[in-house]
């Protein structure tokens, strides 16, 4: 039986029982061994007739009365001295057993606690900001210790990923804000210095840049609300097909400008959702398709029940599809599947991140893939019922 399969309480109980048995064994056999030595020493002090009587009694024979009386008179003081020696032996071997068991117990305790000491050192490094630290798999220790180490390593890895995403997102935000702010600042400075005329065209350009900044700020706020689990606060019964039809009607000008032919297969699918956030996610997918898949000239929107527990909304295009690494990619903030998907095409890299955040906030999931016949598919999957925990909280 491996110690790693046992709990800490079980290991402690087994060690305690083993040490108790060891101490009792040491005392018993130690006293027995020394007692035999003392017995030989006492017998050597007997007179010949008393020793003869002792040997005859030991063989089961009856000695002479004179020899028996001599044996009794000589054994009495030896017995009294031997009883005292026996008590001292028990005390001595008891102390010796306690020392030996304490050393063994200390060694075993160190073996059990050494992974915790190593974990403590790693935690101190983690506290100092080194998120790359990990506790190596020791392959030994109790089940609680191994579980604690595995969970700590998972936590450290998640913290390292969060730090990496935070650094990337900070640089990305600065990059996204720098260009429009530079344009606004340069244009305003030129107008203040009377280098540029204050005409309507330049004011419209400034408004366009400000609108882009406002949109970026709103998108970042949406992701911030999703991170704090405050993105979806009000739910009601929403028909995905009806919501999609409204978004498609509102997006007709966008689709016409992109030159895309729309095809629909919208079937009624009721879900508990925040209607405003649901429409926001649908619109983001539509804008993403019109921006990157316009060359395909085709867009199909489908909805319905996926199974007894889930409903879906799927948008399919005939564009170039996602980049090679997108289907298995966890869509991060400001992530783009290819360099061409940049500000030049009108995107900030937040579109699918926001869609995923909204779908996840509803307890669903986002699936994206490239189709064998060409084009891409984005499917939002929602639960048909609220989870039991969410229902209880509401």
From TrEMBL:
Enzyme class: transferase
CDD domains attached to this UniProt entry: HAMP, HisKA
Record keyword Transmembrane present: yes
InterPro entries: HAMP_dom, HATPase_C_sf, HATPase_dom, His_kinase_dom, HisK_dim/P_dom, HisK_dim/P_sf, Sig_transdc_His_kin-like_C, TCS_sensor_his_kinase
Residue intervals of the Histidine kinase domain: 172-386
Annotated signal sequence range: none
Location relative to the cell: Membrane
Segments forming domain HAMP: 110-164
Molecular function, one GO term: phosphorelay sensor kinase activity
SUPFAM superfamilies: ATPase domain of HSP90 chaperone/DNA topoisomerase II/histidine kinase (SSF55874), HAMP domain-like (SSF158472), Homodimeric domain of signal transducing histidine kinase (SSF47384)
TM helices/strands, residue ranges: 12-34, 86-109
Keywords: Kinase, Membrane, Phosphoprotein, Transferase, Transmembrane, Transmembrane helix, Two-component regulatory system
EC number: 2.7.13.3
The reaction(s) this protein catalyses: ATP + protein L-histidine = ADP + protein N-phospho-L-histidine
Top-rank taxon, per record: Bacteria
GO annotations of cellular component type: plasma membrane
Keyword match Membrane: yes
Protein's name in the database: histidine kinase
Species name: Pseudochrobactrum asaccharolyticum
């Amino acid at each position: 039986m491996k110690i790693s399969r046992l709990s800490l309480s079980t290991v402690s109980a087994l060690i305690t029982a083993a040490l108790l048995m060891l101490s009792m064994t040491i005392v018993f056999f130690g006293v027995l061994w020394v007692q035999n030595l003392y017995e030989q020493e006492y017998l050597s002090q007997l007179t010949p007739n008393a020793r003869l009587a002792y040997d005859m009694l030991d063989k089961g024979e009856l000695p002479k009365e004179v020899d028996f009386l001599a044996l009794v008179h000589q054994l009495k003081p030896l017995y009294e001295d031997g009883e005292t020696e026996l008590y001292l032996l028990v005390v001595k071997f008891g102390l010796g057993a306690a020392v030996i068991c304490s050393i063994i117990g200390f060694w075993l305790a160190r073996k059990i606690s050494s992974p915790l000491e190593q974990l403590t050192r790693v935690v101190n490094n983690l506290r100092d900001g080194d998120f790359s630290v990990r506790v190596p798999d020791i392959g030994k220790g109790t089940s609680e210790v191994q579980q604690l180490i595995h969970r700590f390593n998972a936590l450290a890895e998640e913290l390292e990923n969060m730090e990496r995403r935070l650094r990337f997102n900070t640089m990305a935000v600065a990059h996204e804000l720098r260009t429009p702010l530079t344009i606004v600042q340069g244009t305003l400075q030129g107008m203040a210095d009377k280098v540029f005329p204050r005409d309507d065209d330049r004011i419209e350009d400034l408004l366009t840049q400000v609108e882009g900044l406002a949109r970026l700020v709103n998108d970042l706020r949406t992701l911030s609300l999703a991170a704090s689990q405050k993105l979806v606060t009000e739910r009601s019964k929403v028909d995905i097909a009806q919501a999609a039809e409204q978004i498609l009607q509102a997006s007709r000008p966008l689709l016409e400008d992109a030159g895309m032919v729309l095809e629909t297969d919208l079937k009624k699918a009721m879900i508990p959702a925040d209607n405003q956030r649901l429409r926001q996610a649908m619109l983001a997918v539509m804008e993403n398709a019109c921006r990157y898949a316009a060359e395909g000239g085709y867009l199909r929107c489908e909805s319905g029940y996926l199974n007894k527990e889930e409903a879906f909304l799927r948008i399919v295009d005939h564009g170039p599809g996602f980049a090679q690494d997108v289907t298995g990619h966890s869509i991060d903030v400001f992530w783009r599947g290819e360099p061409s998907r940049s500000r030049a095409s009108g995107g900030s890299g937040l579109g699918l991140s926001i869609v995923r955040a909204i779908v996840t906030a509803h307890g669903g999931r986002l699936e994206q893939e490239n189709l064998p016949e060409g084009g891409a598919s984005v499917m939002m999957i929602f639960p048909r019922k609220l989870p039991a925990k969410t229902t209880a909280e509401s």
